[in-house]
Target: 2-hydroxymuconic semialdehyde hydrolase
Amino acid sequence: MTPLNKNIIIVNDKKDIDNITELESFYSEFPTDSNIGIDELKALMTGKALIDVSDGEYIHWLQLDKHALRFAKTILEK
Model:
């Protein structure tokens, strides 16, 4: 698997973060509750973006690219 953006890292759970050496100096206090619900998923699936402002300082832009949208739509058609 090759992520589109090298700054977005795919993990299974919070414990995975401890094994990523590039993140050793990062501040890592954050909630691990699910944070993308049905409304957010619907928005992503229609090509809209989500902005995460939970840290109160930065805007984090999340959006599926055209390949991800196409893949998701093929899954839904099955």
